[in-house]
What does this fold into?
Amino acid sequence: MGEKQINLGLIGWPLEHSLSPQIHQAALRELGLKGKYCLYAIENNGLREQAITDLLEHVANEKIQGLNVTLPYKQIVLSHMASLTPAAARIGAVNTIRLNKGLLQGENTDAAGFMNDLKELPVASKANTLILGAGGAARAVIFSLLEAGHLVTIAARDPQKAQAVANSFSCIAKVPIRVLPLESKALSAIKDDLDLLINATPLGMSPHKDTCAWPKILTMPKHACVYDLVYTPANTMLIQRAQLAGLPARSGLGMLVEQAALAFESWTKKTAPRSAMYQAAIDSIQKRNLR
Ligand code: NAP
It folds into this structure.
């Protein structure tokens, strides 16, 4: 009997900039597995619920073995899941769907993907951490930081949104989460006490390479490590400023590959070939000239 085809894919809208097909196809190729990773671009209109239901039906009947979920559907798919992993439930977002004992299970590999990649920076335990932004990615990052025992401050242009995020994590925060406006005056007062600064806004992302979430008029923190979730370009203005200030800094490319690797492992039960996946992401960025 022939080897079974592994059908994987991604739901979101729009999807043309996604690097996930290249990353996962490299993994399948490297392991000699027969399969494909398809983009399921579902337009965000009145037909989206039916389209999502139809696609999830293919997971339920094992025509599709695994799906990733990206914007704007990470929250919308929650109600379709029979179960959620603890991380997905607490974050309130799903980026990976698989069949578990015949039922749809939603996972969030962004959280563990971020934490695994953060190990590449010399971050102390109980790090005094500032997260810029309070959207979906910030929620995954905040969850994993709190689980690891770090101290969290959120700075966002809408402090009310940031406060709502802080409130939703209050039961797992050993020390209350602080909320600040994303403004130089507020950041200036705390910046030199920071151990870790994380950008979880899209500022700096190609083609808006000249934008930076850390205010331009403010000098960088004195001794913090810097992690930018943005990965196109790899060398964002924030990363460049951190490096100029002598701070250890890392882009979100490692997190992107790691969340993909964790999803791949969840679907295939095989160790993901991370180097091949990372190289595929770099090659794809270079081809698209997103550096
Ligand atoms: P999101 O849910 O839309 O949240 C974006 C956050 O950034 C919100 O708090 C938003 O504020 C804020 N923001 C947007 N534009 C801003 C501006 N001009 N000034 C100040 N704040 C601004 O998006 P997300 O999913 O969290 O993604 C955020 C970034 O992380 C994206 O660049 C994404 O590519 C990246 N990301 C990377 C990975 C990875 O694996 N490396 C994974 C996920 C996401 P409002 O709520 O006020 O609009």
